[in-house]
C-alpha cells in the first residue's frame, strides 16, 4: 500500500546567529530544541523500538529546520516571535560562560528583553507564522 507522506501544518525552526563557531551552533541548537520538546508536548512522537524489542526515547514527530542569520535579522525575528506569542526558546551569548541551569536562567533574567545578546532562537507554530518569524534568514548550510 502506498502511503502519502505526512504533511504538517506546523513548523519547528531554529535560527542561529551566523558568526557562531561550529561547536556553538550544535550546542545552541540542542539546548533550544530541548525547550520546545519539554513545553510543547504535541511536537513529540511515539517511542521507538528496534526489531529486538530494545526501546528508545521518542523524538520530534516532524523535521526541525535550522536557519542562520545576522545579529540584526535574529533580533527582528525575536521581535516578531514575541508579537505572535508563539512558543519559543532563546539562547544568549551570556550562556556560553555559565556552567549550570540555575546560572543560565539568572543570566537571561538579568537582561531586559531589548538588550538580550541573542545567538539563537527556536520557535514552533503554524507554518505561516514561523515563516514570518524567520523571514530574512537562510537555511543553515
The total of beta strands comes to 7
* Arrangement of strands in the largest sheet: 5-6-1-4-7
> Any idea what the radius of gyration is?
16 Å
Low-confidence stretches: none
How many strands, what sense, and barrel or not for the largest sheet?
Answer: 5 strands, mixed
* Topology order in helix (H) and strand (E) letters: EHEEEHEHEHE
Helix/strand/pairing category = alpha+beta
How much is the average pLDDT?
93
**H/I helix tally:** 4
| General form | globular
Query: What is the beta-strand fraction?
Result: 15-25%
The proportion of residues forming helix, as a percent range, comes to 25-40%
- First-to-last CA distance: 35 Å
Structure overview:
This protein has 4 helices and 7 strands; from the N terminus they run βαβββαβαβαβ. It is globular and about 50 Å long. With 141 residues, it is of the alpha+beta class. The longest helix is centred in the first third of the chain and has 18 residues, at 22-39. β2 and β3 form a beta hairpin. The model has no long low-confidence stretch (mean pLDDT 93). It has helices spanning 22-39, 71-84, 101-109, 127-133; strands spanning 10-17, 48-49, 55-56, 64-69, 88-92, 118-126, 138-139. The strands form 2 sheets. It has a 5-stranded mixed β-sheet, sandwiched between helices. Strands 2-3 form a two-stranded antiparallel sheet. Helix content is 34%, strand content 24%.
